[in-house]
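re: ur question from earlier - yeah i can do the single chain one, its not a big deal. heres the input i used so u can compare w yours
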Amino acid sequence: MSGDDDGLREYVTSRLPSLRRSAFLMCGDWDLATELTEACLARVVDGTRRGAVADADVYAYADLMEACRRRNRRREHVFVAAAGAEGVAAESILVLDALHKLAPRCRAVLVLRHWDGFDVDAVGAMLDLDDERVDAYERAGLAALEQLLADSRTALAR
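and the output i got, formated as tokens:
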């Protein structure tokens, strides 16, 4: 893809929606997700043109996860959706809220593995973790997410 502007344009067009969704899952804010994704893709294009990017997907997702981590150090984010917002199910809001209560590494591993569908090796390369650490973060994140969702359902049932 190096030096191929049409290939870069196609790459950016094809990856923008999924990268933006991943950024939203990490930060909980569509405007910030758009900003982070655009900046990330600009760095991918620049790095690719310079020949510094071996795998654009690994580079893009790694860069995006790091940008989200730096921007969102606190886990106190509260996901807010308008009551009755079209296309937003109550269960989705509970999942997003629980996801944002997880530690950033656990959240990143879950987003990359379960929403983006990357395998353990790719996630390890993106987050600079060995396979055992990816598995450990995934197990811890899923267990915490399950508990948070159970707690939310219990609170709503009252």
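DSSP finds seven helices and no strands in the chain. not sure if urs matches, ping me
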